[in-house]
Amino acid sequence: MKKRWIILAAAAAISLAVCWSCNSKKNRAVNIYHGVGVVESIDTDLKQIQINHEEIKDYMPAMSMPYRVKHKSLMDGLKAGDKIEFTIHDSGQGPVVTDIKKADSAADGGQKVG
Where is pLDDT greater, at 87 or 27? Predict the structure, then answer.
C-alpha cells in the first residue's frame, strides 16, 4: 500500500511539473524591437529574409543576418536593395519579423508591405 502512495505522489509531481513548464512557455514575455536596414535576399519558401541592419537598440549590434518572417505576405513587393524599417518579436525562441515597411517612402506616410 505504501508503494502505491509513493507511485501516485511521484506521478502527481511529474504532472504538476509538466503543467508548470507548459504554462511558463505560454506566459513568456515577448520583447519587441524596431530596426532599420537593407534587404539582401528573400526566401519565400523558408519564410526568411536576410537583412543588413543598423544597431537594434538594446538587442544587437549592426550586422547582416537572416530572420524568420511571421507571414510570407510581409515580403510581398520587397527586393534586394530595398531600405526597410522592421519590427522583431522575440520571446526567447528566436527573433521573428512581424512587420516590414519600405523606409524610402517614410516621408509620404510610409508604404506598409504585407
Answer: 87
Give domain status of residue 9, yes or no.
no
- Nearest CA to 28 out of 95, 91, 97 is that of 91
Q: What pTM value is reported for the model?
A: 0.68
**Cβ atoms within 10 Å, residue 18:** 10
Assigned domain for 57 exists = yes
- What element of type H or E holds 25? helix 2-26
In the predicted model, what is the mean pLDDT of residues 85-97?
94
The total number of structural domains that make up the chain: 1
Instruction: Give the residue numbers spanning the domain of 89.
Output: 31-113
Does pLDDT of 109 surpass 60? Answer: no
**8 Å CB contact between 31 and 86:** no
Residue 43 lies in a domain: yes
